[in-house]
Amino acid sequence: MNWTPDQFRSYAQRRLASEQRTRQKIQEKVRNETNSHLGAVVSARSERNKVSALDGRGKERRQRKGSVESCCRVLLISCRHHELDDDSNVYSLKPIRDAIAASFGIDDADGRISWEYGQQLTRGEQGVIVRIEAL
Questions:
Q1: How far apart are CA 83 and CA 120, in angstroms?
Q2: Radius of gyration of the chain from its Cα atoms, rounded to whole angstroms
Q3: Residues 43-84: tens digit of each pLDDT
Q4: Which residues, listed in sequence order, are joined to residue 94 by a DSSP beta bridge?
Q5: Is residue 113 part of a domain?
Q6: pTM score, whole prediction
């Protein structure tokens, strides 16, 4: 398809606006979950100070809080001339993973981001495809 410069500029502006809206939604969701998560941590600490139940040996039994729910899924696909094994592919994408997590203002090990990886062989230019989905 041959695009005129105006068509391409319009497409690029719409795409950028869409990506910015997605980023804002994810950041808002992360902010909301961070606030609720901090409240859960405070209540968990206060519960820990109370004796809630004893197990058979007379020791305090703690109830586990539910795990943090993912708010977004990030798919990283590396396009390469040769295929890597899975752990090498994940290791090679670590700087990108760190940068994405930093752009959301959280650590990459935070459970609110679900990370998925893939590879695609290419004869063309090598690079990385990033797809971010709000859940």
A1: 8
A2: 21
A3: 444 444 444 444 444 544 444 444 567 788 999 999 999 999
A4: none
A5: yes
A6: 0.53
Q: Which helix (H) or strand (E) holds 26?
A: helix 5-49
Question: How many Cβ atoms are within 10 Å of 77's Cβ, its own excluded?
Answer: 17
Evaluate whether residue 58 is within a structural domain. Answer: no
Spatial neighbors of 62 by CB under 8 A, at least 6 apart, are: 48, 52
**Mean pLDDT to the nearest integer, 13-42:** 70
Position 39 in a domain: no
**Structural domain total, the chain:** 1
CA distance 117 to 100: 14
Q: In what order do the strands lie in the sheet with 72-80?
A: 113-121, 72-80, 127-134
Domain enclosing residue 120, as ranges: 72-134
Is-contact 59 119, C-beta < 8 A? no
- State which H helix or E strand residue 31 sits in: helix 5-49
| Per-residue confidence (pLDDT) for residue 35, from 0 to 100 | 58
